[in-house]
Amino acid sequence: MSIATHLPALQVVLPLLAAPLTVLLRRPGLAFLVAVAASWCALAIALALALQVHGSGVISYPIGNWPPPIGIEYRVDALSSAMLVLVAGIASVVLPFARGSIEREVPAAQHYLFYTMFLLCMTGLLGISITGDAFNIFVFLEISSLSTYVLIALGRDKRALVAAYQYLIMGTIGATFIVIAIGLLYLMTGTLNLADMGRRIAAVNGTRPVLAALAFLTVGVSLKLALFPLHQWLPNAYAYAPTAVSAFVAATATKVAVYVLLRFYFGVFGEAQVFGRLPMEQMMLVLALAGMFVASTIAIFQTDLKRLFAYSSVGQIGYIVLGLSFDSATGLTASIVHLFNHGVTKGAIFMLLGIVVASVGGATLARVHGLGRLMPWTSAGIVLAGLSLIGVPGTAGFVTKWYLVLAALEQGQWWLVFLIVASSLVSLMYVWRFVEVAYFREPRKDIAPAAVPRSMAVPTAVLLVAVVLFGLDTHYTVDPAIRAAEMLLGGGR
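Predicted structure:
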């Protein structure tokens, strides 16, 4: 039996084994090499699985040779393979960047622990994306969440501890709701295998336990993905965590939570149950628009760039949920595409802010006066990523807005087209705040930017290239998103 047969298991096992190895080594340099090697191997495996799914269809990998639904199954399809590539790809770029970043933001004695927690977080997110078992999703969700709490708390700012504690409380509530939902579904179907659960639930659809499970799951996952108004943990977590942590979590964690919602809505409960019998479309539409406008408006008044772009993330999550609310192939395509586009864009922004922090000692608007002259390439990168958040043609963000507009036009909702464009103008306002201070203010005489390490500049440039590439050539993102949307609307199996 070739090693290619066991790629689904290796996708999770490699980073999981690498995590304790970094603790045993304890030396930051060796821990860094192990973490980078594990992330690059994970990316290679994710790409291999994506190609295999594209060529031959869904991959089913029974753990311990126990056939599903009796045993735990790893299942790779069009959507999960895309999520594996996103998580592993972002990790493989952020980790090389992290070495230079944490030298300035994390105490030296805790560097090896940073790599340990990072690998565990990556393991959890990859596990959520690949498993076909409902309870396994909860287990991997807790692995990623617990490690994220620690990663946030590693920041030198004491407010990082408060942010981690706040996230822990809200994350625990969300996890509790999710496990209650899984328990109710198991009670009604007698199985934890997602595909089998989706087949059996048809006989009990509309019953109170199933509706209660849907409610608990929606609220629990909405806490994890920071859907407005359940986003209270996110601004502080992103603002006070080490910048490498903000970049990785912003680009992956909330996206994987959306994946969980999609998997249960379409693969387990079914489109007819979620959108046919319940007013979920209207509820999601209202919450999405609230996030797009309220959170983006709050971002305009922030004085810390990390906090500004944290609130921006809440608004961008609104676009993902808006696409879901259309309950159409085009709307789902927009949501899935934005998982990629926003992940790459926001990862690039926080890495750029990490460079700013390393160079001028902070990322407040007061410290970046005249940054366009002092650090022209970094400032240009922030503007480019900001244009993607606005949705300017030629950037990744434009593709999402385009498909959202198409979805609205398909349903004759012209007023939504106006709101999508108007929300982009709000995004322009908070991006302009950086442009104003960086390009139209005199540089501060008391700040002399330090040299940017190449280890931080090169990975950041990779994501910026991706922002432009995904905006100009949609083959890499839209085609997989269309296949995933068709699969979901076909029952998610």
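Summary: The beta strands are 59-62, 73-76.
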